[in-house]
Design the sequence.
């Protein structure tokens, strides 16, 4: 028996920014960078699928300045909200 998720549930810019501020390991520069990465996705709200896709893109970007630990922390916080 599988778990059903509400695929229509979204997180919007205000909640997204609030969650980023709740992660003390992120500097202001990193927070701004993450907000920029997700900027287009947040226009109409960010679904769990879109979140996972963007997080995967961040993890696989060798030029990204944010380390894997911080990316996982962001993912965990946002998925909690969804």
Sequence:
């Amino acid at each position: 028996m599988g778990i059903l998720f509400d695929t229509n549930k979204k997180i919007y810019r205000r909640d997204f920014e609030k969650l980023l501020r709740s992660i003390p390991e992120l500097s202001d520069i990193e927070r701004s960078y993450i907000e920029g990465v997700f900027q287009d996705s947040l226009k109409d709200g960010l679904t769990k699928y879109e979140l996972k896709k963007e997080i995967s893109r961040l993890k696989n970007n060798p030029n990204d300045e944010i380390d894997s630990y911080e990316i996982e922390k962001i993912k965990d916080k946002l998925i909690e909200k969804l």
Q: What stands out?
A: Residues 13-81 form one domain. Confidence is low (pLDDT under 50) at residues 1-5. The chain has one domain: 13-81. The longest helix spans residues 28-42.
